[in-house]
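INFO  loader      accepted 1 record
INFO  loader      residues=283
INFO  predictor   begin
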Amino acid sequence: MRFAKYHGIGNDFIMLADMDDSLSLTPELVRSLSNRRFGVGGDGVIRVAPGRDGSDFFMDYVNSDGSVGEMCGNGIRCLALFARAEGLTDSSEVKVATRAGIKIVEVVESDRVRVDMGPPIFVPADIPVRWEGPDALHAKVDLEDGVLEAACLSMGNPHAVIFVDEPDAVSVEELGPVIETNELFPNKTNVEFARVESPSRMRMRVWERGAGETLACGTGACAVGVAARLLHETDGRVTVELPGGELVIEWNGSVHERTSVFMTGPAVRSFGGEVDIEEYAQA
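INFO  predictor   done
INFO  writer      dumping tokens
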């Protein structure tokens, strides 16, 4: 089966076109394909399937550990360019169904994509996070050696944003999995360590649920932009710097106003080839 490898500022994916909807992304298959030593290598696999509910395509996204992801901001940008390159569409704007709803994706330049990510979710039960109150923007995460405050929200998938003095000083490999699997989060969570550099600029690192620390996370950058707007009064348009590059996040909403978050950033094709799906599924 043909595949293409794409990345969004270093967050990389194995892209598969399956317009006859015949391929099942089993955990075993995805783990084998995503293995960076024995497989193609990637943070996850994206199967582009026929659209549903009025959409052009369905994004079937599975993390590198085999767990299903509701949404992937960098991945959906890659999908738009992949679909055009594969001749699946010639439109610069497509509707992509995800497990977090339908997203409108627009190719604004040859390698730059803008996505309507939909409104953030603040209701604790809908994130989900075990926290009392109308929102969980000041949730307390109990750890063995203390308590961390996290701004919890959902961008179709759960996020815990922790503001720190210096993201580079954080031991993400140690703290990330501990917070991800904390009992506060029934479905686990993505974890962002962020710093507000100025009203229009931020810097962050991310521990992704199901993938570990990655060079970038689109939904995570959106969550950071939203949390900073609410808690640090940043601008409605901010540049978020991640280890792999930069994303522009736009949001002018509030906790009580359902306003879409817009994310703009690059997507790049790295290479393509063919894989024996049956062989990988049995590996």
